[in-house]
Amino acid sequence: MDMRRKRLWGRILPAALALSLAAIPAAYADEFVPGPGQRYDDATLARLRDNVLEYDEIEMLIEEYNTTYKNLKESYVDTRDSGKDVTKMKSQILSGSGALSEQASELAGMAGMFKDALGYQSMVTPASYAELVYSSELLAQRAEQMTLSADTLTEISPEMLKIRMLDTAYAGLVSGAQSAMIGYQQLLLQKDSLADTLTLLEAVYQSSQTQAQAGLATQNDVLTARQNLEAAQAGMLTINVNQEKIRQTLCTMLGWQYNAVPEIRSVPAADLSRIERMNPEADKVTAIENNFTLRYNLLDYEKKTDGSIEQQNLERTLDQQREQIASSLVNLYNDVLQKRNEYQTAIAAYELEKTKMDAAERKLQVGTIGRLEYLQQKNAYVTKEIAVRNAELSLFQSMETYDWALKGNLSIS
After folding, report:
1. Which of 213, 246, 267 marks a domain boundary?
2. pLDDT tens profile 322-364
């Protein structure tokens, strides 16, 4: 088997790349003129088909390989071209709604696993859990809206169908996969932290046994040390199980077979300069202009009879939704600022712990502290080190959420 085939192993290739409707991202379109059915240049295609998952590939992987999105695109094309065949249109929309509901259930299941992990030494931050819950609920909401759309086919234009069937689904799937990858990264960080804790607890257990033999500790001390060690070992088993399930979900969302083992790269570092470019007051114009629900309702407004009660009611709804978007954007911005403060606080705590760790290293070399005391300091140091990266990931997630609101992916009533 040659290297190209090896890299393709486990990846599910799409049946028709030409069905993709989104524009080619500028970052991958430089000096590339696509031919019929060709979306990306050879270098980009090679990246997408290798056995490596990188964060910046998620959008393209959803477009090219996500089964739910592929089905939605096919349903949209069939529905758009079916003319007055209402029965067929309704069938296609309901089929797309069902596919979207299934993907929402997968994200909800992943969120459930993250919630379980929250109960043991903060294996995953609440922010990642909340984002997955939000993404799954958003997809479920879009699926329900699509189902309702099937009952009013004569009132829906092709542009309205595209917003409801493609735009909202694509954004929800991409943001959901991004949140899952961030959560997966946090899970791995906590796995590293727990591995260090296990080393410490094993040393504590051995020390308690030695002290008990010398009459310096009780059997209850030994039992407690063993229980703590076993609890941590059970926690590691839980992490391993959840890691495998989340990896499987990421694989199926992004085009691999569920049992594939792609290399999952680290999430990019948080770029603090992004915050300086955020301005809720100015950005609300973009967020309002792009919001999927608002865009759909504006098209619906144009179809209403001028001056009718329906149009007047919808006009009030539109005004309320614009206000809600502006208010939500401020809240998202404040969350970014809070996450930045938490990140900076975590860095300060880490620097202090690093000073203590350096001192412990010197003391160990000259023999003024024992191995157990050293391991306790090392565990405290590793914990602070992991906390910095977790805080950075939470900050990165909050900035992504803000940017998604600007792109239209913000749920409003």
Report:
1. 267
2. 999 999 999 999 999 999 999 999 999 999 999 999 999 999 9
Give yes or no: residues 76 and 125 share one domain.
yes
What's phi and psi for 50, nearest 5 deg? -75, 180
CA–CA dist 363, 86 (Å, integer): 80
92 and 235 co-located in one domain: yes
Cα–Cα distance, 206 to 225 (Å, whole number): 9
Structure tokens at 341: 């403060």
Is-contact 94 150, C-beta < 8 A?
yes
Angle at 316 between CA 310 and CA 317, to 5 degrees: 85
Q: Is the dihedral of CA 148, 150, 153, 159 positive or negative?
A: positive
Q: Which residue reads 């114009």 in tokens?
A: 285
Amino acid at 176: G
d(CA 247, CA 269): 21
Q: How do residues 156-211 score in pLDDT, each as one tens digit?
A: 677 888 887 789 889 988 988 898 899 889 889 989 999 999 999 999 999 999 99
Count other Cβ atoms within 10 Å, centred on residue 160: 19
In angstroms, the CA 59 to CA 249 distance is 16
Bridge partners (DSSP) of residue 52 are 263
Boundary (domain end) residue, out of 214, 247, 267 = 267
Q: Give yes or no: residues 207 and 65 share one domain.
A: yes
